[in-house]
């Protein structure tokens, strides 16, 4: 009789958890969220700080990466090449490398042409925390209002999106 109670409890818990949405992504921000604004101080003398809000009114592809993460680095380079001649989407590439010379060499080797910034605080930065990148680097396609319309977009998917933007 005692086993029947436990079986009933387990079945009841399984039934209750079956209705919980399990397909919502749990890492980082998701489609429909407003991308947090951020600023990155320029390391070049006389250059103003970069402010994401200055790009409002345009589609923006945010690509977060680091030279030590091969997947994010390859994705970043591919997306940069795909948007090389695009006038519809501005790409902002943000590296979380803590070493300036490593960052510069990676940018040179990968041929990154879009706006490429280095967040010198690395994984300790507010940007890293606001975008919840502790579970992996990501990229976000933002609409003109800063709303995320796609996440972890591939080069092929990006080409399709760019073709539909007006």
Tell me what the structure shows.
The protein has 166 residues and is of the alpha/beta class. The protein is built from 5 helices and 7 strands; from the N terminus they run H-E-E-E-H-E-H-E-H-E-E-H. It is 34% helix and 18% strand. It has one domain: 3-Layer(aba) Sandwich (Glutaredoxin), CATH 3.40.30.10. The radius of gyration is 20 Å and the shape is globular. The strands form 2 sheets. Strands 5-4-3-6-7 form a 5-stranded mixed sheet, with helices on one face. A two-stranded antiparallel sheet has the order 1-2.
Descriptive key words:
5-stranded mixed sheet; alpha/beta; 166 residues; Glutaredoxin; two-stranded antiparallel ribbon; single chain
Write a short abstract of this structure:
This protein has 166 residues and is of the alpha/beta class. Helix content is 34%, strand content 18%. Strands 5-4-3-6-7 form a five-stranded mixed sheet, covered by helices on one side. It has a two-stranded antiparallel ribbon with strand order 1-2.
As a percent range, the share of strand residues is: 15-25%
Enter the CATH topology name: Glutaredoxin
Can you say what the CATH homologous superfamily is?
Answer: Glutaredoxin
Number of DSSP strand runs: 7
What is the total number of structural domains? 1
Whole-angstrom Rg: 20 Å
Average pLDDT: 84
Q: How far do the termini sit from each other?
A: 67 Å
Report the CATH C-level class. Alpha Beta
- Contiguous runs where pLDDT drops below 50 for at least 5 residues: 21-26
């Amino acid at each position: 009789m005692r086993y029947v109670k436990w079986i009933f409890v387990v079945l009841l818990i399984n039934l209750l958890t079956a209705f919980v949405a399990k397909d919502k992504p749990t890492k980082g921000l998701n489609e429909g969220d407003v991308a947090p604004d951020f600023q990155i101080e320029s390391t070049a003398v006389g250059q103003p700080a970069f402010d994401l809000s200055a790009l409002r009114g345009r589609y923006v592809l945010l690509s977060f990466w680091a030279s030590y993460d091969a997947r994010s680095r390859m994705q970043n380079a591919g997306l940069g090449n795909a948007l090389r001649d695009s006038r519809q989407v501005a790409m902002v590439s943000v590296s979380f490398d803590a070493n300036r010379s490593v960052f510069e060499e990676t940018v040179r080797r990968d041929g990154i042409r879009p706006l490429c910034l280095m967040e010198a605080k690395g994984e300790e930065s507010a940007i890293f925390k606001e975008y919840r990148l502790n579970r992996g680097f990501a990229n976000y396609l933002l609409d003109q209002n800063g709303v995320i319309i796609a996440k972890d977009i591939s080069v092929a998917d990006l080409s399709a999106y760019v073709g539909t933007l007006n």
